[in-house]
């Protein structure tokens, strides 16, 4: 009996070592099968349970991974790493309440440089919509861990989500007082400044980062985007091209490069660039939409209508796509999908209020036209001093038409009439 038991254990050890090699080789199905054999004879084998959890997670089965980790916690109660992994997997499934309960059993070590458990708790609170509680927790963490960049990253992300950009910028100043050379904090500071319209100051920070060994591709791409927002298109294009020379399939660089070409009125270049990009990313709806926009700006309305139609097939419920498709269709007099497109537009009241032109142009109901026009003026003409107050006239036999546009090609007066 002892010999048989020893033999069984030896086979378990062999299976486990082979399973670990299979996991390293990304043979997750094979690894799970071998770990399962070990658990048949030793159901509380910690390493086998861990391998099962890792394989389930790597295969995308987060629910199974959580269950395997829970079994591991019963075998090794208080195992901090397993508890953190369970919490992370629960968060990936948006089960923030369950994750928070697990994390509250995990205490950060007193000598820890970063409060990992507390930071995940704050993320769970945000996921549950408890923003005020998350802010209170982050404030405590800033006081306790003033030299932890991760605390500032999490807190700034929450403030950014809440639209408190000024407070987020002040918080980064506090962090940089403790960590003046923190590359990540400087990068976030530059992005916040740019989002607040302070592109010049943001570019000064990016110039300092450019000379740093930590000037990563992500930072270089953000730098290029700010240059484009600052309308320094030539320098922005050079940076996009440098990134694409190193990483030709960098999707975000391809999209941002095309946007900048459009912003600098280089529509033909944008069309050529996007056609090449779509060969690599044929299902990318954003690139296809940009190609439609660039084609329209290039005055190739037939091509633009074709591309808008392709985007509409893939995103038939998106009102911006529908509105652009309908607007472009008016230039080529193609009304095959008019009713379907209008239905999409009219379902979204916010879109109708801020992008009224498709309905204003083609609606035959005066009451609806008046409503669209009023809502459009309220959303788009922010400064009433621009045109002055609209006077009221007595009804006369002639119709008085007022028309204001900065684009006398795409918004030609003849179309309105």
Q: Termini, distance in Å?
A: 98 Å
CATH architecture annotation of one domain: Alpha Horseshoe
The protein's oligomeric status is single chain
The major sheet is characterized as: none
The helix/strand class is mainly alpha
State the CATH topology of one domain: Serine Threonine Protein Phosphatase 5, Tetratricopeptide repeat
* Average of pLDDT: 79
Radius of gyration: 29 Å
Task: Name the CATH homologous superfamily of one domain.
Answer: Tetratricopeptide repeat domain
Q: What is the chain-wise order of helices and strands?
A: HHHHHHHHHHHHHHHHHHHHHHHH
How would you characterize the overall build of this protein?
It is a single chain. This protein has 417 residues and is mainly α. It has a domain at 1-106: Serine Threonine Protein Phosphatase 5, Tetratricopeptide repeat. The chain is built from 24 helices and no strands. It has helices spanning 2-24, 28-41, 46-58, 62-75, 80-92, 96-103, 116-127, 131-144, 149-161, 165-178, 183-195, 199-210, 217-229, 233-246, 251-263, 267-280, 285-297, 301-314, 319-332, 338-347, 349-354, 357-362, 366-380, 413-416. The radius of gyration is 29 Å and the shape is globular. The termini are far apart.
